[in-house]
Write a structure and sequence with these properties.
6-stranded antiparallel β-sheet, mainly beta, single chain, 10 strands, 4-stranded antiparallel β-sheet, 48% strand, globular, 117 residues
Length: 117
């Protein structure tokens, strides 16, 4: 699979973990080794999920395009969800995501409406 913003590849992986949650699109969690972390900037944003734990976020800058908080990770997920520890996921709604060479449609969720800056 491949993840891109404004034509710039941010991640390529043959080993994503797929996470299925009720009412949300499939999320692809990637090993950090498969992510261009040099293109991501950590932000101060955090969210708390009762099923996964505390997430931390990164923004991506590609030329003049900045996608705030487009990627996240659970450095220390709750004990019931250890397999996603330190993997990185991207918002399908705001990144171009290819799976097996096919561009995935962007789902319409509350995260779709966050503008690029």
């Amino acid at each position: 699979m491949r993840v891109a913003v404004a034509g710039q590849t941010l991640a390529e992986s043959r080993r994503p973990w797929l996470l299925f949650e009720t009412g949300l699109p499939t999320r692809y969690y990637l090993p950090k080794a498969d992510v261009r972390m040099d293109l991501l900037t950590p932000t101060g944003s955090e969210t708390q999920c009762p099923y996964k734990g505390k997430a931390r976020y990164w923004s991506a800058r590609v030329g003049d395009v900045v996608e705030e908080d487009i990627a996240w990770s659970y450095p220390f997920p709750i004990p019931e969800c250890p397999k996603i520890a330190n993997l990185v996921a991207f918002y399908n709604e705001r990144a171009d995501i290819w799976v097996d060479g096919e561009l995935q449609p962007k789902p319409d969720t509350p995260w779709s409406r966050l503008p690029a800056r």
